[in-house]
């Protein structure tokens, strides 16, 4: 039998119940939640960066690759929020500021905006127009930056 | 301007050119590739584990949640392979055995099988039959295990 991480309660949908369930609801231990959200951000950032390289002219524009990357960005954007549940401020080094657990409404609004902006990025990327892609990329980047400025520390905890 | 990671060459499609391009083709530095593949595996494992909890009876079967989790598993299964490029055996602690860079054909076959098995899992999950889901889950789990047994060390490097 393949070992799988234990879940205490039924999985809930991505981006749904952030901060309203204890970490144990979806992750066996806080460390798992921290690594999960960091993993989702890492994958999202890598693919967002590939679009960035195109819209900033560092690599040739490839509409198909841009669309594939944007789909991954949009899928990943839904994920990390479920992993900021109560009790996930400790357990592994991370860069989330304490405010992220105190300002759940603001964080949820930022997360919802990112999900919407990345969905738009994926739609725009499929249209194959570099100028439109650049604009949609910029909007997503502003969403990233707004939450990073407010909720991401410069240094890792622990 | 939002800082994004630098890419040297155009992004190529997921699961495409594993081990045939240097790490610099898609990741600015080996550490980025290592963190990317670990992140993709972490996210994949978390969602696979949620399906596991259902098929093993630890949480109630929720067909909608199973389908959502399976879609994420299938999307993530395509990703890590691009990040095992040449030169990504050092740069951050990891558990990939040296064989993974020596046996590119076998690794690609295993990766392709996982992509196919997880696509099947996603299809089966949408059908809403728990017994079929359990079987598809088991097939994916065997794919995971085969590569882990061959290519994943017990301890982290570095």
Question: Any overview of this molecule?
Answer:
The structure is a homodimer of 158-residue chains. The first copy, chain A, has a single domain, classed as Up-down Bundle (Four Helix Bundle (Hemerythrin (Met), subunit A)). Chain A is 58% helix and 0% strand. The longest helix of chain A has 26 residues. Chains A and B meet through helix 1, helix 2 and helix 5 of A and helix 1, helix 2 and helix 5 of B.
Uncertain regions spanning at least 5 consecutive residues of chain A: 1-24
Radius of gyration of chain A, CA atoms, in whole angstroms: 16 Å
Q: What fold name stands as the CATH topology of chain A?
A: Four Helix Bundle (Hemerythrin (Met), subunit A)
Number of helices of chain A: 5
- Which CATH class of chain A applies here? Mainly Alpha
Q: Overall 3D geometry of chain A?
A: elongated
Distance between the termini of chain A: 35 Å
H/E series of chain A = HHHHH
CATH hierarchy: architecture of chain A: Up-down Bundle
Sheet having the most strands of chain A: none
């Amino acid at each position: 039998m393949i070992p799988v991480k234990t879940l205490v309660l039924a999985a809930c949908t991505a981006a749904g119940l952030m901060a309203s369930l204890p970490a144990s609801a979806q992750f066996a231990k806080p460390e798992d939640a921290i690594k999960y959200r960091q993993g989702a951000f890492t994958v999202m950032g890598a693919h967002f960066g590939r679009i960035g390289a195109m819209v900033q002219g560092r690599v040739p524009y490839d509409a198909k690759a841009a669309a594939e990357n944007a789909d991954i960005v949009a899928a990943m954007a839904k994920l990390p929020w479920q992993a900021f549940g109560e009790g996930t401020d400790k357990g592994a080094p991370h860069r989330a500021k304490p405010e992220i657990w105190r300002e759940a409404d603001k964080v949820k609004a930022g997360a919802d905006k990112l999900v919407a902006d990345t969905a738009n990025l994926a739609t725009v990327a499929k249209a194959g127009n570099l100028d439109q892609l650049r604009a949609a990329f910029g909007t997503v980047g502003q969403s990233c930056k707004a939450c990073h400025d407010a909720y991401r520390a410069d240094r890792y905890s622990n």
